[in-house]
Known about the structure:
This protein is mainly beta. Helices cover 6% and strands 45% of the residues. The strands form nine sheets. It has a 22-stranded antiparallel beta barrel. A five-stranded mixed sheet has the order 10-15-16-13-14. Strands 25-24-28-29-34 form a five-stranded mixed sheet, covered by helices on one side. The longest helix is centred in the middle third of the chain and has 13 residues, at 630-642. It is globular, with a radius of gyration of 31 Å. The chain starts with 8 loop residues before the first helix and ends with a strand.
Amino acid sequence: MSVARGISAAALAAALAIGSPASAQTTSTLQGHVEGAAAGATVTVTDTVTGRKVTATINAEGNYVIVGLRPSTYQVQLSTGGEAETVTLPVGQTVTYDLGSSADTAGTGSEIVVTGTRDRTETRTATVSTNVSQQQIENLPQNERNFLNFAALAPGVSVSPTSGARRVQAGAVSSDNTNVFIDGLSLKNPINHGGVAGQNFSRGNPFPQSAVQEFKVDTQNFKAEYEQAGSAIITAVTKTGGTEFHGGAFGEWQPKAFIGQPYFERNREKPDYSRWQYGADLGGPIIKDKLHFFAAFEGTSQKLPSAAINLGPNPGDAVPQFLKDQYNGVYAQSFEQRLYFGKLSLFATDRDTINASVFVRKEDNLADYGGASVPEHGRRLLSNINVYQAEWNHRGDNWLNELTVAYNTVSNGTPRESDDPEIIINYRPDINSGEAVLLGGNSFIQNDDQETWTFKNNVTFFGGAHTIKAGAKLTLNTYERLEDSRNNGSYYYNAATFTDPAVQVPLAARISTVPVEAATAKNTQIGLFVQDDWSPDDHWTINAGLRWDFETNAKNENFVTPEKIATALRNYPGWKAAGIDPEDYISTGDNRKPFWGAIQPRLGISYDVNGDRDLIFFAGAGRYYDRPLFITSGIETIKSYYQSVSTLSFCQGTGYPAPPQGCTNWSDSYRDPDALRAAAIAQGNGGDVWLLNNDTKLPFSDQFSLGVRKRFGAVQTSLTFAHIRSHNIFQFVRGNRFENGWYTRIVNRDANGNVTGCSDGGGLWVQDNIAGSLTNRDGTPVPTSICAAQNGQLAGFNGKLNIGQNDGKAVYNAIYLTVDKPYSKESGWGFTLSGTYQRARTNVGTELGSDEFFAGPDVTQFGWQNVQGVDQYRLVMTGMVNLPLDVLFSATGTFASGPAYGFAGCPPAAITPPSPTPDGVGCIANLGGVRFPPNEFAYANVDLRLTKTFRLPWGHDLQIKGEVFNVFDSINRNYSGWGAGNNPVTWEENGTVGNARSFQVGASYRF
């Protein structure tokens, strides 16, 4: 029998990755069996990039395991000699690489035949995971350099298709329930929406794509080391400098001619547009094999499609012609982003590796104008993020310790473009009649700031059938949320009579009456976990884990309700009649207790039928706690202490047919916002009141999955049933009640306008400002004996009373199908398929990611329905193939049902409203998922890319690429409750998402 060393044909066709030993969030594990090797022999793996060597001892059973390896390509070498073999480790995966001797040399260790190689997916695990390789990141078509866009390759995951505020959504809950880890550090946004810090209203990228080596997406049953996510986890690892200098530079260009105009805007002149994306990276040794570096920079300079100002677009809008002449037209918007990343890797000893990195993100976007809002009324969208991180890994003979210390700051804000008072010109002499023109400074700005220290330590014990990992994490957080609402003053005018605000008396004005300050909170988070990955034999793998999380101030525990609000609530007749206990919403600073019960068991079982990683059945279940966003606590504090807006109606207001009841006499001094503020303070009324329930609960999800994985040659397939039940979904709901407990009232009047009675109008209505007293047509008050539904305003306040409600739930059932043939240069081709058929249901009748349920007093009032924004089915396919002349062709296709959407209208055209309509309201807004788009595939998009590589004589590569997005120019309509949901004729609206057919060219130089 030949004793020649080689790779078997079976090994080339089958990848034998399993999921037993635990590894860190961004590191990987290599394990295997060496047939015939004597106990005490060793296996050494060498990172082909950094040159780092790690040695493991083969035990008495002939097995070896090495945890905590950086995702990379390794040379595997036996101490008994022979040629080294190559194996690649993806991020966060466990790879099995078996070595065996032929029968006639058993026990000598001199003749070894490789009997296994690796695949991109773990197979012996209950985690539903999708790896995205560096080849896919660098070569699949993409209109923006946002690596999170590739998360859509995972089943059950969607990425918002329109540029600006890119968000990753999974399950039946919002993107707030995802978490992104880069080099093991969470980039969770704890303050505002979006899931990822800095993404709540940014069109920018969260991290330089050229610094991302690869990442994976876990959509079901992730292990106990992961925290603060109820739907999906994204884990990315950054590049590291190697033993040789490598780097490059790139540029990508989209001029105006390359951009397709949205379908419903093609009757207009094409606006100006241009975008440059550019960057460079470099890595290599400072001291070879001892100290290496890597650095990357990416920038975006974009002239966005101009915002069109279109004042008075309809006949009879009464907007003065001089305003149309002055402002109507197109105005360019700009976006600038700069991303910097640097990393040092010190190989201090054979057992110690220290990494230190820094990441800086800066961006500036002039936006928020167009339509009726002129450029001076716009705002700048600013983002500044700084992350500093140090990691120390120490390796023992059968254990590994990983220590991380990090400090990061995040700031996102929307400062005004102008600090002048806001001028609002209404269509009619009624400040609630609709805004025809918005001049001056914007009335609302916000800013979120976060400062966090993170201390994390994990230790892993390995060897034998069990790999046990335990860890602790401590984070010290400071949160700030600032809202400035009308501190600059808002002055209202009637369009038909508007001339010059410098001399004309306004109809009314609104202004903040308290100093603007940020709501701040300190919060300490503690997380503990332990997990055991047990492989008793070649068939069974059991992943068991337990996690516990605790926060000292997750729900505004230290907040004290102002005495004025507390007194008003205790004496509020509407709550007494409705059976609402005011003590549930009055905080003393001591009656909101931190939650100690966030215990999260997680269990996964897989069974390898033949013990060869070919056919595997798996199941898993677990509990996953997330956290409330600080914005909910911040709103409660801000509305109670730092924001109170009062309204003054002026008796001499130009355009009033008659002075309004309770009006204020005008003074020219009121043109100064400070004098207006003094007059408003003299009224003595507060503004809106927003309150959390003292028993606000943490959101969590219970997950279960059951599936099978099967290999067909080089193609890995999986079929999974996923089930998620999400609890404690939070919304602010309307808390105002008339003094008899009703939320709305239907008023009956006789022919003379006198009130003859009233009845309950129910809760299915939008009511922003509940009425106070009730009068007859002649102005005489109506006795409560005729209508008891009066005086709905909280005494001493004039605005909305919103209260927190935690009764939201969601249920998610889905079938996932994946097919994956990884691309390699050797094979010359690769493809992936990710199919999702899902039924996402919720009792929350509003849009994902909102804070305020403004449609009524109960978030569950519309009953169970589909989840707004979630598709019924989605198919994502990618492919890469080598063509002659060093040309690579790649494509991505996405086909989906389109998202579920609700209805809204004033009056509601999409439904037959109850008759008669309650007094003072007219809108119904069920913004949940009432229906799906009428077309079978309401969203279809195919992107293509060709890349030509020129091999230069001195060994470097020059790449030229061309891309086309939405190659078939599919009309992907937007579906919203206010648009399509209020159009019962077609259930469609004339707006689109994503790209019209567009092109991009680029070039890169690599060495």
